[in-house]
Each structure stands twice: as C-alpha cells, then as structure tokens.
Specification:
heterodimer; A: mainly alpha; MetI-like fold; 13 helices; B: mainly alpha; two-stranded antiparallel sheet; elongated
C-alpha cells in the first residue's frame, strides 16, 4: 500500500473517533447543571429576555435536535456561538490558538533537544556517575508538578533575580509598533523569547524527563544488537558506532512517544497558561467551565481532540517514512 | 441436551478447581520471587518506605477528618466529645480554623521575615490565614493518597475488564471496544477530567471517578496487548475445550496471566493521578476549602509568594517526594517482574 492510500486510510479511521469525541463532549457539556442563560443575564431577567436568548442559541429545541444540528454544524466548520462572549467559537479559538501552539511546540523542541543528548550520554556511560545524574534528573522531572516548577521559576527569576518577566507573553509575530519598548522586529523576538523561557521549561520538563528515559533504554537496546557487536568486532570505534549505527535506529520509539505524549502536554498547557497568565486555549477552557459556556467548552475540547488525533497520525506516518522496514500495512 | 448439559457442568467444575489451584501456586511462587527482587533493590525499597509513611499519615488524617466526623453523629461517641479533627484539635492544632491571635505568613522556626520570627509552635511556618502549615500538609496527604489510589483502582478495574474482553474475543467486539477507548483517549486526559468535574460538580468522589475513567484507555490498551498473546496459550485452549465458560476463562486464566504490566503501570499511575489531582486543586476544581490539600495550598500561596516563600515550597516538595516514591517503587516492580527490561 502506498503512502497516499495509507494516509487516507488513517484519516478515514479518525472519522469515527472524532465523531465519538463530538458526541461525548456534546452530552457531557449538556449535562452540566445550572443555566448558562441565567449566568449571562444576571439575577432577575425578564421572561421575554430569557426566551429571546434561548431561541438565539437554539436552547429551546429538544436535545436530540440540538445534537444533530451541532454535528451538522461541526462538519461545516461551525462550532456555534459562545454564550459569554457572543462571538463565534471558531473565531475565539483562532484568537487563542497562537499562544497555546507556540507554548506547546517550544516545549516539545526544548524536551527533544535536551532529552536526546541526555539519553545518549546516559546509555553511553551506563552505570557511571553521568548516567546516575541523568537518571536522577529524569526521575525528578517526571515527578514534579509542572505548575510548581513554574511558580518556583517566577519566584527565583522574576521576583528574586528580576531577570525574566512572569506575565504578558509577547507573540513573536506581533507588530513592533503595537508593543511598548520594542522598536524593531528583533526587539519583539527577543522580548518574546525572554517571556517564553520559563513557561517553556516548566511545561517541557515532564516531557524531557519521559523522553530521556525512553531514549536511554532504546539506545541500550540497540547497542546490544548483533549488528552493533559485529561492528565492534570489526574494530569500529565506539563513537562511530554510536553516531552511524545505533543513533538513528534508537530514535524510532521516541517518535511514537512524541505523539502519545501530546495528551499530557495539552493538560500541562492548561496549568502553565494559568500560572504565567497566558491567554491561550487552556485558560479559555478553564474560564468557560467556570462560566458554563457550553459551546465554548465543546469547541475547545473538540479542537484539542483534533490536535491530538492529527498529532498521532503524523507520528504514525513519519514512523513509516523513517523506518523503511515498516510497510504501511503493518503500521496500524 | 439436558444430559450433555450436566456432563459439561461436571467437567466445568473439575476444570475450575484445577485451574484455581494451578494459578494459585503459580502466582504464589511469582509473588514471593517478585518481593525478593524488590527487597534487593534499594531504590525500590526506599520508594516503598516513603509510600508506607505517606499512607500512614493519610490513614491517620482520614480517621481524624472523616471517620470521627461520621461517628460523631451517634450519641455514643459524641458524649466523649468526638468530632471532626478531634485528635488534631485535642493534642495539636486545628488544620482548618484560624487560631486566636493568628500570626500570618510566619517562616519556618529558625528563620525570620517581614512578618516576624518563626516559632517552634509552627515548625514549617504559617499560611495566609495564620494556620500551621505542617498540620495542613499532614491532613493534605489524605487527599493526595486516597484520590490517587482510588482513581487508579477505578481505572485499573475498568481498563482490565475492557481490555481483557476486547483481547480475548477479538473480531468486532475488539473493534468496537478499542475504537471506544481510542475515542476516550483522543480527548486529552486533563480536559476530559475537567469536563467530568464540570458536569458532576467538585465533589471529591467524582474527581476520583473522573481521573479513573480518564485512565481507562492506558490500562485497557496495555492489558489487551498482553491478552492477545496469552489467548493463544495451550492452557486457554485446554480450558475452552473442556467447556469452561468464557467469563471464567477471562477472570481465572486470562487476566491473572496478563496482569503484571498492569500492576506496574498502576503503581506509576498513582503518581500521575496525584499530579493531576494537585493540578485540578490548583485550578480550583479539586477539594474545596477549608479542607486542606497540597494543590490548593499551592494555589493559595501564589498570591503571597514574595511575603512567605516557604508557603509555596513545602506543598510542592510533598507532592514531589510522594510521586518520586511511587515512580521508584513502580520502576523496581517492573524490573522485578520483567528482568529483561532492566537496564
């Protein structure tokens, strides 16, 4: 099976999953007790006001009718209107998507760039002090709450040393004229990087630690393979073996894990956005739960679901692309 | 039909008896071996010690905060003055009430800050309302340990049943169940728990069940992959040939022989669940004040971090130490159950 057919098949398989996500989210959100209209209109709205709002958001229809309408809407890219903001949910999410994606991708980059060298060194110097140190780092890393790391960073770098800002994340693509104390594009980039360091590291630490563990055990496994032993017997130097023979083959499990780790990355983003007051999708969903803004809760959850499903498909595809031994039939 | 029915019943009974004895011997030997391995692993042992210590604290806190509260409804116990936080208030200090003449935001005993000199009455300092931090940490362990453990058991039981059934039957049952699990997995863990809490309220029981349900996919996928290979074993075929009912095969043969990785994952999952519950409390979705929990203490400390650093350090350290312990023990357990993985 060619890569195109495989891609199409994976996308088709994602359809029932996404339909399931929409269904679960819809019924969960509609089971939330309390009346969002009441929250929106305050303590004593008139009957006609309530009726008007209900009609506007289609809340006067029976549940199954609303479900069918909602699914049809989602299929056309319409996630409804936010009750609290009155805006289209898609517009609100598009507005908040940037910071979250920036945060998530930079954390992943940080995690990959630190975990791979740590894991490789750990495997190379197995049971030496370097290995113990790296294992300790990854053990503590997987066990520390990300939001606490964030709090400690703010304490040390913002309050104590006063070298890094703790709030007001600047987007790297922001217009320099709209940002105070930034004259050129470079200023904006520098500001953005300074703002991003702490959230990035606090969110990425868990991923870094998890990846380090996998990288280490994967390297060790590859290093004990017969072809590596053969290379050693031929007198190939250890560093060449590491670079040319072992490294690439050891990266396969990492790719799989990257896709699956997305779920914990998203959860972490919700917390980190709260700690550093970043106006992203994580804060959006927390606030919409407090405000019982059903359309927004559903919309954000579905978009997170899409991000995850697409992420997993992309990792599956790249897996098959990187490892020629994997045919598309086997990857499922 | 009636006669064949009775014979197959006989066969079924004997087979069950044999199967039981067999798996019992096997698992007993297995357990003894596993425990021996863990004993020889200092890291795992250290983890176990910390887990036991924290569980002890949590058990004590549960007795004082929940059991006494429940029993105090009955006149027999109420006449002794039994009430919520009875032990704490009689012998120590209340974990929820502000003491009279409370001194806010004191540092740990030997240190001093803008709010005064720390005292040995409050060895770890006081919080934003002048309550003792140490006593709140001790009572906060109850939430972390109990929610972590119960949520994991919910996920483990649910995931094991789903995964074993899917793996054993295969075919459309497998397809339907695994697609359902995949769907559940496609909603990010934290978001799923958040929506669960939004629906059912911030009641602690629902937080546990929510975290448990959200972890079903992890367990069911794990056990399914084991079951698929166990299913092909001769003893399963023998049991099937002897006419043992499917649910008995699954419960007595398939699950016990596929359970080791689930147990390891379960230990690690308790750590994850503790982190998640702390995160939920931090956002204000967990246990509600004044009941102390580590996550909620961290959330409170955010506003007064400059005034009293220690208030935000202690709860984080407690979470860290507890989760590290579960991870160390879980890793040790994995090495003991599957020495091939030991690197």
């Amino acid at each position: 099976m060619g890569i195109y057919r495989y891609t199409i098949r994976r996308l088709l398989q994602a359809i029932p999953v996404m339909l399931g996500v929409i269904t679960i989210t819809f019924f969960l959100a509609n089971a939330i007790p309390g009346d969002p209209v009441q929250i929106l209109l305050g303590p004593s709205p008139s009957q006609s006001e309530i009726a008007a709002i209900r009609a506007r958001y289609g809340l006067n229809q029976p549940l199954w009718q609303r479900y069918i309408n909602y699914v049809l809407g989602v299929l056309q890219g319409d996630l409804g209107r936010s009750i609290f903001y009155g805006e289209r949910v898609t517009a609100k999410i598009a507005e908040r998507m940037g910071p979250t994606l920036l945060l998530m991708s930079s954390s992943y980059a940080f995690a990959i760039l630190t975990a791979i060298p740590l894991g490789v060194i750990s495997a190379k110097r197995r049971n030496k002090p370097t290995d113990h140190a790296s294992r300790l780092v990854s053990l503590v890393g997987v066990s520390t709450p990300s939001f606490w790391i964030g709090l400690m960073f703010i304490l040390v770098f913002s309050f104590h040393l006063q070298v890094l800002p703790s709030t007001n994340l600047v987007m790297p693509w922001a217009n320099p004229t709209e940002i105070r104390s930034a004259a050129t594009r470079l200023d904006v980039l520098v500001m953005s990087a300074r703002h991003l360091v702490m959230p990035m590291v606090s969110l990425g630490t868990l991923q870094m630690a998890a990846l380090t563990r996998i990288e280490r055990s994967s390297m060790l496994e590859v290093l004990s393979e017969e072809y590596v032993q053969l290379a050693r017997a031929y007198g190939v130097t250890e560093s060449t073996i590491l670079r040319k023979h072992a490294f690439r083959n050891a990266q396969l499990p990492i790719i799989t894990i990257l896709g699956l780790q997305l779920t914990s990355l998203i959860g972490g983003a919700v917390l980190i956005e709260t700690v550093f007051q970043i106006n992203g999708m994580g804060k959006l969903i927390v606030n919409s739960i407090f405000r019982q803004d059903y359309p927004l809760i559903m919309g954000t959850t579905i978009v997170f679901g899409v991000v995850f499903v697409v992420g997993v498909i992309v990792t599956d595809l790249s897996y098959a692309y990187i490892d020629p031994r994997v045919t598309y039939d086997e990857v499922d | 039909m009636a006669t064949t029915g009775s014979t197959s019943d006989e066969v079924l009974d004997t087979d069950e008896g044999v199967g039981e004895a067999d798996s019992e011997i096997e698992s007993r030997v297995g357990w003894r071996y596993t425990l021996g391995q863990v004993k020889g692993d200092p890291t795992a042992l250290a983890g176990l010690v910390v887990i036991c210590f924290m569980s002890g604290l949590a058990a004590f806190a549960t007795l004082d905060a929940v059991v006494f509260d429940y029993l105090s409804e009955y006149a027999v116990f109420a006449q002794f003055g039994m009430r919520k936080y009875w032990i704490a208030e009689t012998f120590w200090i209340s974990p929820v009430k502000e003491p009279l003449g409370a001194r806010r935001l004191l540092p740990p005993a030997p240190l001093d800050n803008a709010y005064g000199q720390g005292t040995w009455d409050h060895p770890l300092g006081t919080d934003d309302r002048g309550r003792d931090i140490l006593v709140r940490l001790v009572y906060g362990s109850r939430i972390a340990i109990s929610v972590g453990a119960i949520a994991t058991v919910v996920g483990m039981v649910g995931g094991t049943v789903v995964g074993a059934v899917a793996g054993y039957y295969g075919g459309w049952v497998d397809d339907v169940l695994m697609r359902a699990v995949e769907t559940l997995y496609a909603i990010p863990f934290f978001i799923l728990v958040l929506s669960f809490i939004a629906v059912f309220g911030r009641n602690l029981a629902f937080v546990m069940v929510g975290v448990g349900i959200a972890s079903i996919p992890t367990f069911s996928r794990l056990i399914r992959s084991e079951v698929v290979s166990v299913r092909e074993e001769d003893y399963i075929e023998a049991a099937e040939a002897a006419g043992v009912r499917d649910r008995n095969i699954i419960a007595r043969h398939v699950i016990p022989n596929s359970f080791a990785p689930v147990l390891v994952q379960g230990t690690l999952q308790i750590g994850t669940a503790i982190l998640i519950v702390a995160g939920l409390s931090f956002l204000g979705f967990g246990v509600q004040p004044p009941t102390p929990s580590w996550g909620q203490m961290l959330s409170k400390s955010r506003g007064v971090m400059i005034e009293n650093v220690w208030f935000s350090i202690w709860p984080g350290l407690c979470i860290l130490v507890t989760v590290v312990a579960f991870n160390m023990f879980g890793d040790g357990l994995r090495d003991a159950l599957d020495p091939r993985l030991k690197n």
